[in-house]
Input
Amino acid sequence: MQDRRSPLRGDLASARAVRALLEIQRREKPEVFFLSETHLDKATAEKLKRSSGGLLLIWKKEVSVQCQGVSRYYVDVTKEEEEEWRLTVIYGEPRWEHKHLTYEAMRSLHSGSDLPWLMLGDFNEILFHREKEGGRARSQAQLQAFQNSLMDCGLVDIGFIGDNFTWQRGWIRERLDRGVANTQWNLLFPSAQLKNGEMVKSDHRPLVVETDGT
Output
């Protein structure tokens, strides 16, 4: 059976991190691999598949992927299987005063296509108060801004298997990384599962999506 797994999220700041990512690659055998905050220089990144700033998307040569657009916040592609669908990998603006730029980018992407759509990565924001433990609480206005952006894009959280929190620094834990999809994508892949993997040389967990749920 074709492997349809896409592990996401990583950090290439050190050789130890690279080895950890290679271990994830060997274990999961992904078709598509997304890294954010790569810290790769431009020349190195250009030798790989598709990059934008600190974002890097890599895929197997036998996989049919067409790049639709890149920005500082996302890489947007279409993937052809039995039916064409859309994948947007994202790294959200970490600063509250600039988060509206991420949400504007999401809304702009939504207006450009009606394909089955999966968006995932590090949104750098939580949806609900229960997705944060320790540290200063988010305001309801912050949560509502994120919730509104997903609603406007017709995207809903696809759930997860594993630990509730995907990011940890000291005693603060948050669910910053997630997958969201539109109704068409959920109908196309009704058995899809997202797993919050184990933290390996990073303060984020890798996300692993299996579209066939096996």
About this structure: The radius of gyration is 16 Å. Residues 22 and 28 are 10 Å apart (CA to CA). DSSP finds five helices and 16 strands in the chain.
